[in-house]
Amino acid sequence: MAALCCAVAAQGAAGCGFTAxxxxxxxxxxxxxxxxxxxxxxxxxxxxxxxVGVADIRTGRLIRPMDRFRAGSITKTVIATVTLQLVAxxxxxxxxxxxxxxxxxxxxxxxRTTGTAHITVRQLLTHxxxxxxxxxxxxxxxxxxxAGFTTHRxxxxxxxxxxxxxxxxxxxxxxxxxYHYSNTxxxxxxxxxxQVTGDSYADEARRRxxxxxxxxxxxxxxxxxxxxxxxxxAYSAGLTDVTDLNPSSAGAAGEMVTTLPDLDRFFAALxxxxxxxxxxxxxxxxxxxxxxxxxMGLFPVQLPCGRTVWGHNGEISGSYVVxxxxxxxxxxxxxRVNSDVRPGATAETRLLAAEFCPxxxx
Length: 362
What we know:
The strands form three sheets. This protein has an eight-stranded mixed β-sheet, with helices on both faces. Strands 5-8 form a two-stranded antiparallel sheet. A two-stranded antiparallel ribbon has the order 6-7. A hairpin with a 6-residue loop joins strand 11 (319-325) and strand 12 (332-337). It is built from eleven helices and twelve strands. By secondary structure, the chain is of the alpha+beta class. Helix 1 runs antiparallel to helix 10 and helix 6 crosses helix 7. It starts with a strand and ends in a 6-residue tail after the last helix.
């Protein structure tokens, strides 16, 4: 990245100038969201980091550019990229039945479940499989997101067990009938990657994405419960500290840990055509199956000025993050809050309009 401009709006800041009220202020709340940060890079390569609030309510420490955090469902964009790289290598076809690329027991479980036969890899990528999302299971939701979190936050989960949880429920719809966002879809894509390559989705993501792009702050922690240094804290509603947890419950649907600079670099490279050939990148941006809502690991956001940007968001206990870029990857922004209390849509739209709608690209 180019030289970094820094703007801080918090007491105790040093080394950066204070800035007037920015749209970031609307993302924080004294009672629920202690801090927010944004890193943008425009078409000229000028990067700007801004932060408001604090990374740690106990010490008053500010959020720093290289702080690690949990990225939630932005993991899906990486998993989709790896899957489509395998498509480009002719090791996988989007129209293959998913059971053809799973271990025998898991293939048999899908075939036995009413309404799940003939699901394709393409339908997993576009969230049109109809499969029930394991995170919608009431018991699982309570244990990972609700009242049972304190007791179960360190529990380990295998993909096979999470798949059984999903298959215990009737599908939302027949395969290909409707769009319905489901974490089970990307859980299965992680299993497909292992079956096709012989390596885990985490190993393939490291080899194909993380190492080539020098994403030094990005990792797939597996069952590791702590965040790598440096990092701030992560909070749930009521400012409960939820920094430490076992992310195996998210797996290929949301396990990844990253930084704002790494997200900017990844989305700039992806939309800029550095990770996928044109046909596969075009497929990622094809939203016809979802009636305009979702492609393959990417979704479009239309701004008030009429401009459309592409990216993904991520939610997991203690973290909400968004990364979006222009369709050529030349202008990118990532922002996050250190809480799982999602900002209001108006506040997010205002931030994105301030970033993408002014004539900053020349």
